[in-house]
Amino acid sequence: MMKLKAFSLLEVLLVIVMIAILGTVLGPILSSAVQGFNIISSRREVLAEARAGMDRMVREIRLTPSASQIFNIGATNLHIQYPVGTDITYSLSSGNLLRNSDILIGNLASLAFTYYDQAGNVTGTAANVRSIDIQMTVNALDTSTLTLQTRVFLRNTGNDYANFTSP
C-alpha cells in the first residue's frame, strides 16, 4: 500500500499567515511605487503637451516677417500675422491656451507675454517689439504645477544680440 504525502493543516495555516504578513508589509510599498509612477507619467504627459504647444508658438512667432505683422499685444494675448497671411491669435481662456479658437494647451494656470524693444526695454507698442518672453504655468494632474519660459527673437527685425542675457 502506498502512503500519500500531503501538507498538514498546521503547515497550510503557517503559509497563509506568512503570506498575509508579507502582503501587509509589501502592499503599501508597492502601492506607493505605483502611485509615484502614475504621478511621474502624468507630469511627463503634461510637460510634453506644454512643450509641444510652446514650440509651435515660438516657431510661428519667430517666423513673423516684421514687427508690422504684430497687431495686438497684451499680457495674456498676442495677435500676429504668419508669413503666408494667416492671422494667428494666442490667448488664455478658461484655463486653455488658444490658437485662434483651437485649444493648443489645456490645464493652463497662467500665461504671460512680455514684449521687448531693440534696446531690450519692455515695450507696449506692437511696432517696437523685437523679442517676446513667454512664460506659462501648467497644472499637472497631481495638483503640482510646471513652468516653462522662453524668449523669442523675431526674424528680420534688426535684432542686436550683443546685450542679450538669458532670463
3D structure, described in words:
By secondary structure, this protein is an alpha+beta fold. The chain contains one helix and eight strands, in the order αββββββββ. A five-stranded antiparallel beta sheet has the order 1-2-3-4-5, covered by helices on one side. Strands 6-7-8 form a three-stranded antiparallel beta sheet, with helices on one face. A hairpin with a 5-residue loop joins strand 2 and strand 3. The model has no long low-confidence stretch (mean pLDDT 86).
Describe the secondary-structure layout.
Layout lengths: L8 H54 L7 E4 L3 E5 L5 E7 L2 E4 L2 E4 L2 E9 L14 E9 L5 E9 L14
Antiparallel strand pairs: 1-2, 2-3, 3-4, 4-5, 6-7, 7-8
Number of helices: 1
Quaternary organization: single chain
Sheet with the most strands? 5 strands, antiparallel
> Strand arrangement, largest sheet?
1-2-3-4-5
Number of domains: 1
Secondary-structure-derived class = alpha+beta
Average predicted confidence as pLDDT: 86
Q: Low-confidence spans: pLDDT under 50, at least 5 residues?
A: none
Question: What is the helix content?
Answer: 25-40%
β-sheet strand percentage: 25-35%
Number of beta-strand segments: 8
Q: Give the overall shape.
A: rod-shaped
Summarize the helix and strand pattern as letters. Answer: HEEEEEEEE
End-to-end CA span? 89 Å
Rounded radius of gyration (Å):
28 Å
Summary tags:
single chain; 167 residues; alpha+beta; 5-stranded antiparallel beta sheet; 8 strands; 32% helix
